[in-house]
Amino acid sequence: MSLHQAIDLNRDLPGVSATQVNFHPPTGISCLVVGAGVGGLMTALECRRKGHSVRVVERSPAPSTAGDFFSIGRNIIAHFYNHWPDLAAECERINYPSLVAYHTITGERVSGPEALRIGEPSMTLNDGSQKIIPFHRHHRPKFVAALLAQVKHLGIDVAFGAKVTDYFEDSDRQKAGIVLHNGERIEADVVVAADGIGTKSNKLVNGGDTRAYSSGMSIFRTSFPVELALSDPEIRDRWPLLDGDVPCLEIWGGYSDIICWLMTHKSDGKGIESWNQTVDVSRVLQITSKIPGFPEVAERLIKTTPKNGIVDWDIMWRDPRENWVSPAGRVVQVGDSAHTFLPSSGSGATQALEDAISLATCLEIGGKSNVPIATKIHNKLRFERVSCVQLSGFMNHQKQSNPVYAADSEDGPSFKVSLGNWMVMYNSEKYTYVHYGEVLNHLLSGRPFKAQNIPPGYTYKPWTIKELMAKVERGEQLRFGGDWS
Ligand SMILES: Cc1cc2nc3c(=O)[nH]c(=O)nc-3n(C[C@H](O)[C@H](O)[C@H](O)COP(=O)(O)OP(=O)(O)OC[C@H]3O[C@@H](n4cnc5c(N)ncnc54)[C@H](O)[C@@H]3O)c2cc1C
């Protein structure tokens, strides 16, 4: 099986109908979405549901099957149950529910396997019913294919092979637009830059790119058909499925049809932020050979990875950037183009999906004549929350880089990844409906607005990576007040 086979739009997409979706009346707002990743496709779906007309352009010639796994917040699955029931069913079908066990770098089990408890097990849906939604861990290519299937089912135009080179806006004509690699210009009432980390929209939105600092760490990542690994009996014995055929996600300090392994290591400056450039397995083995006691069976597992299967992603820090909207308010960034996350945050995809819901709702409330203020309100509603999620990812990164297995700190076991209740028990659409007016008042008359989608009791303070690193170097605890659990 080829690792990076393109998805055939006519053959491989799952069947996802929209018979149970309630579409809002047309708003007359035209949206042009750049990027058919998680954030872009969800923006297209939510814009369509809210009555805006929408089209998508994507630079890849075809949907990409690159990438391995990410977590999707249970609040997003609850949103699918509320508004996209077929998509919810597809997500349950393709989910890889797993238990988690923590290990030392030499493979000794420290805790687990146990369910990853994040928030209450049961979510309240919009009709008042309670729904138990498990932790969702998705294979990115399959999750993107599910979103794309829903988009295609609605007849939303997705142009592949359309690389955007520039963004522009014209406040007099109340239009924004993009320039494609072939010089073609396309305009709309609002352009959504969902083109990821290397977005071309920063020049217009912020006058230039956000500075990225090397974290000094890089991460090898891969996923491939599990039969390749299980053909070795020692590997099969070491990593059996748990009772009920449940896979175990093992996190080593410091199942079913696809196996995924990730390894954070000191950066040698050769990794880059790309899902398409791969490294040879020998690079990984050079590192593991220097770890005293690193189990031979783990090296055997690494060796089963197919050629061109390992990405070496350089982990970069970026300070939170408060502004995601162009001066005239007609180009707005969502997902990674607005904010990037460390792998330890487990939240990059979820925050992109929450952005999409918030933006489409703001445009719906504002209406065609208020697009510029609606995008700014969306930005204000989202920024502090996203910045707190980024901060929580930094805290997880520190825990994982220097795991202390013996003592539990006040914040719980000091080696366990934590995602707060405040992150998961959250309804992005409802929050937008409730607080849109307050933010409008805040922007127009300066009336104070206090975000309520951040850790309870915490008063937001801007932060930078440099300040955090200095705290870590001074040996200070990363504590910020409020309840982050
Ligand atoms: C191929 C790929 C594989 C990934 N694999 C993983 C993974 O295994 N685990 C994980 O945690 N995260 C992965 N990510 C990142 C993860 O999807 C994002 O962090 C998160 O979901 C936020 O999504 P996004 O839509 O903002 O950005 P992305 O998912 O990065 O999507 C951006 C989209 O914009 C397109 N694009 C970029 N530039 C242009 C341009 N100039 N013109 C037109 N289109 C453009 C890209 O091709 C891409 O489809 C992957 C991203 C990509 C693109």
Automatic annotation (TrEMBL):
FAD-binding domain: residues covered: 145-363
Keyword tags: FAD, Flavoprotein, Monooxygenase, Oxidoreductase
Keyword match Oxidoreductase: yes
GO molecular-function terms, A-Z: FAD binding; monooxygenase activity
Known cofactor(s): FAD
Pfam family name, one: FAD_binding_3
Domain of life the protein comes from: Eukaryota
Keyword Oxidoreductase among record annotations: yes
Occurrences of domain FAD-dependent oxidoreductase 2 FAD-binding (ranges): 32-62
Family to which this protein belongs: Belongs to the paxM FAD-dependent monooxygenase family.
Protein known as: FAD-binding domain-containing protein
Biological source species: Talaromyces atroroseus
